[in-house]
Specification:
Distance between the termini: 25 Å
Number of strands: 8
Helix content: 25-40%
Structural class: alpha+beta
Number of helices: 2
Radius of gyration: 12 Å
Largest sheet: 5 strands, antiparallel
Amino acid sequence: MYYKDVYYVEFYDRHTYLYLKHKKYRTTYSLSYWKECLSFYDFGQSYKAFLVSYRHIADLTHDKKDILLTNGVSIPLSKKYKASFMKGYLHYLQCSQ
Protein backbone atom coordinates (compact mmCIF):
# COMPACT_ATOMS: atom_id res chain seq x y z
CA MET A 1 0.00 0.00 0.00
CA TYR A 2 1.24 3.47 -0.92
CA TYR A 3 0.26 6.66 0.86
CA LYS A 4 -0.82 8.10 -2.51
CA ASP A 5 -3.54 5.44 -2.68
CA VAL A 6 -5.12 6.47 0.63
CA TYR A 7 -8.13 8.76 0.21
CA TYR A 8 -8.84 9.31 3.88
CA VAL A 9 -8.39 7.89 7.36
CA GLU A 10 -11.26 7.55 9.81
CA PHE A 11 -11.30 6.69 13.50
CA TYR A 12 -14.35 4.98 14.98
CA ASP A 13 -15.16 2.17 17.35
CA ARG A 14 -11.58 2.21 18.74
CA HIS A 15 -10.06 1.38 15.35
CA THR A 16 -8.59 3.43 12.56
CA TYR A 17 -9.64 2.70 8.99
CA LEU A 18 -7.65 3.59 5.89
CA TYR A 19 -9.82 4.00 2.82
CA LEU A 20 -8.35 3.35 -0.61
CA LYS A 21 -10.13 3.37 -3.95
CA HIS A 22 -11.42 -0.21 -3.70
CA LYS A 23 -10.28 -1.34 -0.26
CA LYS A 24 -10.54 -0.53 3.41
CA TYR A 25 -7.91 -1.50 5.98
CA ARG A 26 -8.59 -1.65 9.71
CA THR A 27 -5.72 -0.86 12.09
CA THR A 28 -5.32 -0.63 15.82
CA TYR A 29 -3.11 2.46 15.58
CA SER A 30 -4.50 5.76 16.85
CA LEU A 31 -5.54 8.61 14.60
CA SER A 32 -2.71 10.70 16.04
CA TYR A 33 -0.26 7.99 14.93
CA TRP A 34 -1.56 8.22 11.36
CA LYS A 35 -1.64 12.01 11.52
CA GLU A 36 2.06 12.04 12.38
CA CYS A 37 2.95 9.42 9.74
CA LEU A 38 0.97 11.06 6.94
CA SER A 39 1.63 14.72 7.75
CA PHE A 40 4.52 14.80 5.26
CA TYR A 41 2.38 13.26 2.51
CA ASP A 42 -0.27 15.91 1.87
CA PHE A 43 -2.85 14.90 4.50
CA GLY A 44 -4.78 17.21 6.76
CA GLN A 45 -7.20 16.78 9.61
CA SER A 46 -10.66 17.99 8.64
CA TYR A 47 -12.62 16.74 11.62
CA LYS A 48 -12.01 15.12 14.99
CA ALA A 49 -12.06 11.62 13.47
CA PHE A 50 -10.84 12.25 9.89
CA LEU A 51 -7.60 12.78 8.00
CA VAL A 52 -8.00 13.59 4.31
CA SER A 53 -5.56 13.33 1.42
CA TYR A 54 -5.35 16.69 -0.36
CA ARG A 55 -4.56 14.92 -3.63
CA HIS A 56 -7.97 13.21 -3.67
CA ILE A 57 -10.11 16.31 -3.08
CA ALA A 58 -12.50 17.01 -5.94
CA ASP A 59 -14.29 20.01 -4.44
CA LEU A 60 -15.69 21.65 -1.33
CA THR A 61 -19.39 22.19 -0.80
CA HIS A 62 -20.64 25.74 -1.33
CA ASP A 63 -20.88 26.37 2.42
CA LYS A 64 -17.44 24.77 2.90
CA LYS A 65 -18.75 22.36 5.55
CA ASP A 66 -17.93 19.21 3.58
CA ILE A 67 -15.09 17.95 1.41
CA LEU A 68 -16.00 16.01 -1.72
CA LEU A 69 -13.45 13.40 -2.71
CA THR A 70 -12.74 12.05 -6.18
CA ASN A 71 -14.32 8.71 -5.21
CA GLY A 72 -17.65 10.42 -4.41
CA VAL A 73 -17.33 10.31 -0.61
CA SER A 74 -18.21 13.41 1.42
CA ILE A 75 -16.09 14.14 4.52
CA PRO A 76 -17.09 16.74 7.15
CA LEU A 77 -14.99 19.86 7.67
CA SER A 78 -15.41 21.24 11.19
CA LYS A 79 -15.00 24.83 12.33
CA LYS A 80 -12.26 23.75 14.71
CA TYR A 81 -10.00 22.29 11.97
CA LYS A 82 -11.12 24.42 9.02
CA ALA A 83 -8.43 27.12 9.15
CA SER A 84 -5.47 24.76 9.43
CA PHE A 85 -6.95 22.33 6.91
CA MET A 86 -7.56 25.06 4.33
CA LYS A 87 -4.07 26.48 4.89
CA GLY A 88 -2.56 23.05 4.20
CA TYR A 89 -4.80 22.47 1.20
CA LEU A 90 -3.97 25.84 -0.36
CA HIS A 91 -0.26 25.18 0.21
CA TYR A 92 -0.67 21.80 -1.50
CA LEU A 93 -2.42 23.42 -4.49
CA GLN A 94 0.32 26.03 -4.87
CA CYS A 95 3.11 23.45 -4.68
CA SER A 96 1.47 20.97 -7.04
CA GLN A 97 1.22 23.40 -9.95
